[in-house]
């Protein structure tokens, strides 16, 4: 029996490498407690030699290590430190340590096949001085049988969970401490350390991009920006282990885990479930069977912990969910990160910097031939790091995107791509810069097939895509515009130059020379949508400005579509044609009323509409075309608290909601969470009749003092994307 057991334990042989790949932080090797140098004499008694009795890690949140390393917020009992910065431990021996005769050293190990040249086995001898950014240890204090050690980790050290052994040299062999998981040490990236690849020099930015555990997702569309809070929860219980598991799942070699470029690249693939059974399964078709609708999630913790325990993709996500979870992963490991929203984001299927919208004879968009789409918004992440693999100047913020859109080197992933390289059109630099460049810079081209089969360009819109790129402000909940970090001023000389550079580096751009295009210049058409609350009627206004001395008539066609936020049409709910008389040198406005009964039955979960207006000037045959997305106002949840809010004492939270629709809401799910205050709670309600108010009271015990945020969401088939939030101050007990 024992023989077969031994055989099973051996790793399978592989002709290419002496050792199997070492890509799991979870697995361990067995370390001998007595490593003999040969035959041991009969009288040898290990107890005669220096022996370790105990090791103190100073790992409590209020103790020196977690305070100095900014890791006191992690809800984790083990020692967590950041690389390239010294930390303290204490070793108690069975007798006073004598440096003349006693020799001991520390060993840090990670993974199953530790090797010194791979950085997975680290022996540390005690020296007189610590060199900054290199592994080393020195004695800072001796008292009775104890010594205090200051340990420095390497600034390029692998990020993960290490095992610690203390080894003592005897004449006949090495004596080691036995395996003790209480001394395990997590080592993270260090944005506070100048030599670290992720060093960020502004303390306020470090507090926001590394230590803030809640953030804001901007959604809606360019004309109607909406925002909601998202709980990143990177310090919550088990989240750090779940994030390390993601790297195991992606099979990233342990020796590559000190490199933020590699970590971002593999993480952008493993965040989505396409081709590797990653964390989140995407769904954009408004059917969310056997899963949670993307709009119901209030944060990342539930998703990461469910994946960590089930090892199966969590259903379902859309772009802000992928980006929210990715942000948690990056901040948890210590890589500065922020969530970005790009309004009017191009999804260009053939990466030619041009979104082709084909019109039929009536001027309607032909959905069968139009393959490209403009997302109302798209969320991705930026991670902060140096790029030693690129020329100087391309470090700093890098785009990483976990939403599965296109494959990159055979997998659904995107980035890291230097924001600076995208701005200047240097899209030859890895990874996936051409794709991101197209997302923020494509032109929309309206094409019509003429009778003889040629394509006639009716209109080119160069400013619609990537109009606004935003992220949360540092230290506040407002919006910070960062469009100019991605692109130069529209129409400027620099912008043209960046475009020419991008084309030179292989971004395909079709020229318009081979097709005839003379725009109608003496008539302008504008288009306004009235702000509207879900369930009410609203109007759209089309305005023509005739700048010529000719009178024209325009045959105008308005098409109203219900769309996914990705710009893909579900159906057309409104068709309206009219003839407009355009007097010389004058403006004329035409209103079209949209009734709630026309759209309510088909509405999708983000309450998005997309209007196309095309007008043919009958006298010249020229076509004017424009499009606009709009989002309905969705009512919010109200959150209230009662009584004193003190850490460790019970408090009460109430969530209220009034049904605004002219129908009963059925099978309603409420969620409530707040990092440091309460873990996610859920409640189901069978029905909420029209105009009636639901009230849900929850009792909880907050565990962390300070400014905290409560986030709630409501979800049912008829109504999604209903959110509420409340900032609360938890007092110290």
From TrEMBL:
Keywords: Acetylation, Acyltransferase, Blood coagulation, Calcium, Cytoplasm, Hemostasis, Metal-binding, Secreted, Transferase, Zymogen. Binds 1 Ca(2+) ion per subunit. The active site is at 319, 378, 401. It holds the Pfam family Transglut_N. It is an enzyme of class 2 (transferase). Belongs to the transglutaminase superfamily. Transglutaminase family. Tetramer of two A chains (F13A1) and two B (F13B) chains. This is Coagulation factor XIII A chain. It comes from Stercorarius parasiticus.
């Amino acid at each position: 029996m024992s023989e077969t057991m031994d055989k099973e334990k051996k790793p399978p042989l592989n002709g290419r490498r002496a050792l199997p790949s070492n890509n799991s932080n979870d697995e361990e090797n067995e370390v001998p407690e007595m490593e003999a140098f040969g035959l041991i004499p009969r009288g040898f008694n290990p107890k005669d030699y220096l022996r370790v009795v105990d090791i103190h890690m100073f790992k409590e949140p209020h103790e020196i290590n977690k305070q100095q390393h900014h890791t006191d917020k992690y809800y984790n009992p083990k020692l967590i430190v950041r690389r390239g910065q010294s930390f303290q431990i204490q070793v108690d021996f069975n007798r006073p340590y004598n440096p003349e005769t006693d020799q001991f050293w520390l060993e840090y190990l990670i993974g199953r096949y530790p090797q010194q040249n791979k950085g997975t086995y680290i022996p540390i001898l005690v020296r007189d001085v610590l060199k900054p950014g290199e592994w080393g240890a020195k004695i800072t204090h001796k008292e009775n049988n104890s010594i205090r050690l200051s340990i420095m980790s390497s600034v390029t050290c692998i990020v993960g969970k290490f095992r610690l052994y203390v080894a003592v040299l005897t004449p006949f062999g090495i004596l080691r401490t036995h395996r003790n998981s209480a001394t395990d040490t997590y080592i993270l990236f260090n944005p506070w350390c100048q030599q670290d690849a992720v060093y960020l020099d502004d303390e306020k930015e470090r507090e926001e991009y590394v230590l803030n555990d809640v953030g804001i997702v901007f959604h809606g569309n360019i004309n109607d920006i909406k925002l909601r809070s998202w709980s990143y929860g990177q310090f919550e219980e088990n989240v750090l282990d779940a994030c390390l598991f993601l790297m195991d799942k992606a099979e990233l070699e342990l020796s590559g885990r000190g490199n933020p470029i590699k970590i971002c690249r593999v993480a952008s693939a493993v965040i989505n479930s396409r081709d590797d059974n990653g964390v989140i399964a995407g769904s954009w078709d408004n059917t969310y069977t056997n899963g949670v609708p993307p709009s119901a999630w209030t944060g990342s913790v539930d998703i990461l912990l469910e994946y960590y325990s089930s090892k199966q993709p969590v259903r379902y996500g859309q772009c802000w969910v992928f980006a929210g979870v990715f942000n948690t992963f990056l901040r948890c490991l210590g890589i500065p990160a922020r969530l970005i929203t790009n309004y009017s984001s191009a999804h260009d299927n053939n990466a030619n910097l041009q979104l082709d919208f084909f019109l039929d004879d009536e001027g309607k968009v032909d959905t069968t031939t139009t393959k490209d789409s403009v997302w109302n918004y798209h969320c991705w992440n930026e991670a902060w790091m140096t790029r030693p693999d690129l020329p100087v100047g391309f470090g700093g913020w890098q785009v990483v995107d976990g939403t599965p859109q296109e494959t990159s080197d055979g997998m659904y992933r995107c980035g890291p791509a230097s924001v600076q390289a995208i701005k200047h059109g240097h899209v030859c630099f890895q990874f996936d810069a051409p794709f991101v460049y197209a997302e923020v810079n494509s032109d929309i081209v309206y094409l019509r097939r003429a009778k003889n089969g040629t394509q006639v360009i009716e209109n080119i819109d160069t400013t619609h895509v990537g109009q606004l790129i935003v992220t949360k402000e540092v230290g506040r909940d407002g919006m910070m515009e960062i469009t100019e970090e991605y692109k130069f001023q529209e129409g400027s000389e620099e912008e043209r130059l960046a475009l020419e550079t991008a084309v030179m580096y292989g971004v395909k751009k079709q020229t318009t020379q081979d097709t005839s295009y003379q725009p109608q210049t003496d008539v302008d058409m504008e288009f306004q949508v009235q702000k509207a609350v879900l369930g009410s009627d609203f109007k759209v206004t089309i305005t023509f400005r005739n700048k010529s001395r000719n009178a024209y008539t325009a045959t105008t066609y308005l098409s109203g579509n219900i769309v996914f936020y990705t710009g893909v049409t579900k159906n057309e709910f409104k068709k309206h044609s009219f003839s407009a008389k355009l007097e010389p040198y004058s403006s004329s406005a035409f209103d079209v009323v949209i009734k709630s009964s026309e759209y309510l039955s088909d509405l999708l979960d983000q309450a998005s509409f997309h209007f196309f207006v095309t007008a043919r000037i009958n006298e010249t045959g020229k076509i004017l075309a424009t499009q606009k997305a709009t989002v309905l106002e969705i009512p919010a949840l109200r959150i209230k608290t009662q009584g004193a809010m003190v850490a460790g004492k019970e408090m009460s939270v109430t969530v209220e909601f009034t049904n605004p629709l002219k129908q009963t809401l059925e099978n309603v799910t409420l969620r409530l969470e707040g990092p440091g205050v309460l873990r996610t709670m859920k409640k189901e309600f069978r029905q909420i009749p029209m105009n009636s108010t639901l009230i849900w009271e929850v009792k909880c015990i907050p565990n962390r003092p300070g400014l905290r945020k409560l986030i709630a969401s409501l979800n049912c088939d008829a109504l999604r994307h209903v959110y509420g939030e409340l900032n609360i101050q938890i007092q110290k007990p």
